[in-house]
């Protein structure tokens, strides 16, 4: 349940989807053009102020536009977003790419990371609770404006070396109530410098091995595409393990 009106939800959705696409603060005039709700920018501005007061948006420095908070992004992902569907051809392609390496788990893990990075154009991770860690697509981070900030990029690289963090993440993933996916944003990743970052992941089990597979990148990931992709990779790994 939510305390948002349908108009507020539509405005929030429009702002977040524009932010995901353009990586910049979103103003009321742009929302008016995209929504066609028949309401003036002043009314939209008032609603944006209300959304900020409720914790869904915040005002960017030196700009009249707004950006989504972690709360706003999570609400969008769980309540407002309509995920894309993978085509049958995509599903078959993923499964075949993984099945080829089903007899060597280490190679399978690396292949899962490589294939997920290739299809998502993001950085992909695949790891186990025993500490096996595969990653691919690190160069994709440099295509995102958030990682032009050397402090953000350095913090991501340090996080990848923080093995205790990942070990605990896998433990928590199997201890908590199961969802269709898990999402960590900003400060939830443990460092202030990681505020612009996000991690989407899902659990898998392959024989005696279990762990998570996911995407680490900007907080404004294209969740409509990324979440179904991560979920299917986990599902494909689960099916290989049967």
Describe the model.
This protein has 242 residues and is of the alpha+beta class. The protein has 2 domains: 6-80, Orthogonal Bundle (Arc Repressor Mutant, subunit A); 88-240, 2-Layer Sandwich (Beta-Lactamase). The chain has helices at 6-22, 28-35, 41-53, 70-80, 88-99, 105-120, 150-161, 163-175, 223-240; strands at residues 57-59, 66-68, 123-128, 133-136, 182-185, 197-206, 209-218. The strands form 2 sheets. Strands 4-3-7-6-5 form a 5-stranded antiparallel beta sheet, with helices on both faces. Strands 1-2 form a two-stranded antiparallel sheet. Strand 6 (197-206) and strand 7 form a beta hairpin.
Quick take:
The chain is of the alpha+beta class. It has nine helices and seven strands; from the N terminus they run αααββαααββααβββα. It has two domains: 6-80, Winged helix-like DNA-binding domain superfamily/Winged helix DNA-binding domain (Arc Repressor Mutant, subunit A), CATH 1.10.10; 88-240, GAF domain (Beta-Lactamase), CATH 3.30.450.40.
Termini separation comes to 37 Å
Q: What share of residues are in beta strands?
A: 15-25%
Q: In the CATH hierarchy, what is the superfamily of the largest domain?
A: GAF domain
Q: Which ranges are low-confidence, i.e. pLDDT below 50, for 5 or more consecutive residues?
A: none
What is the fold named in CATH at topology level of the largest domain? Beta-Lactamase
Instruction: Tell me the count of domains.
Output: 2
CATH architecture of the largest domain: 2-Layer Sandwich
């Amino acid at each position: 349940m939510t305390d948002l009106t349908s108009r507020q939800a539509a405005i929030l959705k429009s702002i977040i989807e524009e932010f995901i696409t353009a990586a910049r603060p979103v103003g009321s005039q742009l929302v008016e053009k995209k929504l066609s709700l028949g309401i003036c920018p002043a009314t939209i501005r008032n609603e944006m102020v209300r959304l900020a007061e409720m914790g869904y948006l915040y005002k960017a420095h030196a700009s009249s536009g707004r950006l989504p908070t972690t709360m706003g992004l999570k609400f969008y992902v769980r309540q407002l977003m309509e995920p894309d569907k993978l085509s049958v051809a995509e599903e078959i392609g993923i499964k075949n790419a993984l099945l080829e390496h089903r007899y060597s788990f280490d190679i399978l893990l690396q292949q899962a990371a490589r294939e997920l990075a290739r299809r998502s154009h993001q950085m992909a991770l695949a790891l186990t609770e025993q500490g096996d860690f595969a990653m691919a697509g690190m160069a994709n981070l440099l295509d995102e404006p958030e990682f032009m900030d050397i402090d953000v990029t350095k913090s991501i690289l340090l996080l990848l070396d923080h093995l205790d963090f990942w070990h605990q993440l896998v433990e928590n993933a199997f201890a908590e109530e199961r969802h269709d996916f898990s999402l960590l944003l900003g400060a939830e990743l443990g460092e202030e410098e990681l505020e612009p970052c996000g991690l989407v992941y899902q659990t898998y089990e392959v024989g005696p091995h279990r762990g998570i597979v996911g995407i680490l990148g900007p907080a404004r990931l294209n969740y409509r595409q990324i979440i179904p992709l991560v979920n299917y990779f986990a599902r494909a790994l689960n099916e290989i393990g049967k």
